[in-house]
Amino acid sequence: MASAEHAVGLRELFERLRSVWAPAGLLGRAVQIPVGSTPYRVVFRENKLRLIRYDIGAQARQPLPILLVPSLINRHYIFDLLPGKSIAEYFARAGFAVFAVDWGAPGDEDRLLTLDRCLGGYLPRALRVAARSAGADQVILLGYCLGGTMAAIAT
Asked: Is 118 a catalytic residue?
């Protein structure tokens, strides 16, 4: 009986939402949010992995670059959600050379890809390229979600 009551409650909720959204012209339209709008360039590729460098036109003034590491299931723009509300943009404006790992979208061909390959191959190579590209011998790692664990393991 609870599931039937739950279904009735959901139906009422959808009807209320429809009555608000329809007059505003919001039904059936996808809202486009400009995620990932900070300019960047790809500085390294390996299979689906891309290492991107954010380029806002300012010279890096800090001695160490920052490498942003998202979770394997998140895209790089998790660090660059909206203009003015982007951690990548913030660090770049603060004078850091800012890099981010983009793991790419997984497909069937990645079914044999292991964490060992990511942690022992892709991420260390991305670290070296980021350091070399910024003219440094060390990199500040900042990870999000599983990317935080991966960054800690990489240290």
From this structure: no
